[in-house]
Amino acid sequence: MAADLKSLPDKLPTPSDLKILPVVAGTTLGQCFHVASIGFGVREECAQVWYDFFVEAVFDTRFRTYLAVLNGQPVGTSQLFLSAGVAGIYNVTCIPEARRQGIGAAITLAPLLKAREMGYRISILQAFQQGSRVYRQLGFQDFGKLSVYLWENEKD
To answer: Rounded CA gap, 89 and 142, in Å?
Structure first.
């Protein structure tokens, strides 16, 4: 999916106690990966490997990572990747009990507004079916389909 950042809404209806915070280091980084692990259903035994893989990239200057906090509790994540004049959105998720409250849209919109402020005009993302409605409300349109295959080695 892709969107013209000029057409983004400036604000969305969200819970009054929702805060979208940039992840800088320390506690918020750990919270971010914990929330993402829950939101994406990463198995506990794989969470550390996933964390180790992404922690290096999080502090690459092209990445911006965000944490949604509702009533003081971390509930959602997103990442913005800036490259080749395009703002990519990745790893958008919410913990199951925080879904359907506008948090996914808010955690997607915040980095997009930052990208627009920085002069970016186009954003792209890959959407699972359950998130595509939210992205369309933000102005994203389909421009192709991508198939993803996941192979897991079964333990004996």
So the answer is: 15
- What's the whole-model pTM score? 0.79
DSSP at 138: T
Residues in Cβ contact with 55 at an 8 Å cutoff, skipping those fewer than 6 apart: 29, 33
Instruction: Name the amino acid, one letter, at 153.
Output: N
Q: Which of 81, 142, 135 is nearest to 108 (CA)?
A: 135
Positive or negative: CA dihedral 128, 60, 122, 69: positive
Distance separating the N- and C-terminal Cα atoms of the chain: 39
Q: What is the pLDDT of residues 86-118, one digit of tens each?
A: 999 988 888 888 888 888 889 999 999 999 999
